[in-house]
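Margin note from the TA: students keep mixing up input and output lines. Inputs are the sequences; the output is the structure of the whole complex. Example:
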Amino acid sequence: MKRTSNILIVAALATGAFLAACNRGEHNRKPGRIYMPDMYESRAYEFYSARLSGLKPVEGTVKRGELLPYHLKESDTALANLVKNPLTITPTDLKEGERLFNIYCGICHGTALDGNGPLYKGGEGPFSAAPANLVAGAKSGYTEGRLFHVMTYGFNMMGSYASQLDREQRWKVAAYIRSKQPGAAAPAAAPAKDSAAAVVASK
Amino acid sequence: MYRRVSILLRKHFVSVLILCASIVIPFSSVKAADPAKGKATFQTNCASCHNVHKKLTGPALAGVEDRWPDKKLLHQWIHNSASVLATGDKYANDLFNEFNKTAMTAFPQLSNEDIDDILAYIKVEGSKGPATAGPKPEGQPEGGTEKGNDNSLLFGIITLILAVVALILMQINSNLNKLAGDKEGVLTPDPVPFYKNKAYLALIILVLFMVGGYFTINGAIGLGRQKDYMPEQPIFYSHKVHAGINQINCLYCHAGAEKSKHAMIPSENICMNCHKAIKEYSGTYELVTAEGKKVDGTAEIAKLYDYVGWDPNAGKYTKPGRPIEWTKIHNLPDHVYFNHSQHVVAGQQQCQTCHGAINEMDEVHQFADLSMGWCINCHRTTKVQFADNNYYSIFEKLHQDIKDKKIDSVTVEMVGGTECQKCHY
């Protein structure tokens, strides 16, 4: 009699331990147990609530240290051609522009800027529209202002990158693209940019 | 056999000749337009707005020649679409309006032969039919998982059997001893049954205490830790397909990792940067959930369209979008401060250091246990990029020590990475 009760106690303990170990559910679909859930499920500012995710900055405000807003509308392409880069581009900025280009643009336009990134692969990739060749053809003549405009609003199949790159980063990318294009040292570019391009070219 | 064929051939010489001619003639007439040459011209001039089978900025081009009433007009349209619109041609104007009045770029530089080449290419490509999303499943039978666990179970069972055998042998031994004693007339006391034997009981209690303690302590430590947590997400988004196979940089979507405390769940417009054009999953890699259920990638993309309110056929947003409620996996309690940009920009850490091989995960699970010990261990051993880093320029003594060759590198701990109030305040 006592023997069976012993066995029962051991069995109960073993099951208890087994259950405690498996509170994640099959394939770890459940988060497991927590104590003091107030600490984990924050009532403070959360990105994951439907209400707060992806809010835009308050209308008419400029973040401290940020470049001033860009006021041209999507259809103002002729005006965009004339917009000058407000930054004084240094070689470091061009390097940063290259890094940003390779992350955000290279996936389609290719790190060689030839419009043949891994997503297109000469028509083999999943993206069915050919990305623009930025170093040859019609688009190689775009000014920095126009490049910035396209990054801000998108163009044809390309979407807007304003949510990923802030204004300063977009200008740096534009300067980098321009520095790679034929005729980059054209007098149309700002003098500061010219010397920067010359430094890069002399490297 | 050969003779019979040759006789047959001779008999039907004329009809064979006609047959051959009828095969050759259409080919020779098409020969003027070279689809291979057309493909090259198409890729450089047309492909950024047109696809043969898919509607992009402009219409899908398969069967374009049949749709236009007049080939000459089509040529004129390609040379200068505005001039065709000006004539008031109904088909042209309807087309213009259907595509949100986006004017087609004029291509005056294309000769009539170039255009014929392109049209020939479109005809050849169009007759092939859309590339079928025929995933060739690389048979990856699920199951046979966790072999290590199976082994430990086996060893456990063997240990148990051996223990039982040892117990039985001990019983037999004591019984035999007793019998031998009886025979020799030596009076041995009645044996105490093993469950009343104090030594046995003490041993069992000790073992139970240790096993119970192990599970209790482990369970208590594990409370609130979510290592390996892999929730089901509203859309089967495979990081392996995006970051692995298609080589999209982590920062492309999680742009916040460089700029803010949070890496950020990407907003839906970032999905639509690519998925405006990528409407179906045509990869050869087969998507399978952890449960072994096959996933239709195209249906998952359709779910995205439903969330953002995009109509892929019309090519525009037709209803208000709503947020996708992804389930958060990596969660730090409120009393811990963690900043992504600090680790990614100043610390130059790769995402994979803490998140594991995300680019090989179909469904993301938590790779690290995100415990305090895990943080501290890394801070003790990781060397910061001290030289040429403006961020650490204020640590003058350490810079001096490096110059004096007293130390050769600086760990996170040395710049205060294990101070309590760095993360808890």
